[in-house]
Structure formats: C-alpha cells, structure tokens
What we know:
mainly alpha
Amino acid sequence: MNTIDTFKIDKGALSVISLSEESDDKEYWHAKTPQERLEAVELMRQINYGYDPTTVRLQRVLEVAQLTSS
C-alpha cells in the first residue's frame, strides 16, 4: 500500500487566501518536529511526481557485443 493511499483530503478544511495576507503556516510548521516536516515533504513529492515502487530501482542497461573469430 502506498503512503498516498492512506491520506484523504478534507476539501472543506481548505481556504484560499492572498499571498499578502498573514497566515498560521509558519507557526504550524515550527510546532512540528523535523521528522514530521520531512514526512510532509516526502508526501508532497509523491503527490506531485507520483510513486511507483517498480521504478525505484536502478535501470539495467544491456549491450550486445559481437564475438569476432580470429
């Protein structure tokens, strides 16, 4: 199960404000531990860029070499 699947967004709790208005975001994030902040950043990264466990590994590159007879 992906981390993204465990979270639900409460759209009623969202509000749109101007960038010039003061908000409580700074105090909210200062109240969180560094671990919680990193987990939030990772969740946002997965939401923006997706998460596919099959692509986490390094890709293999295969090259076919011709054997020359001497």
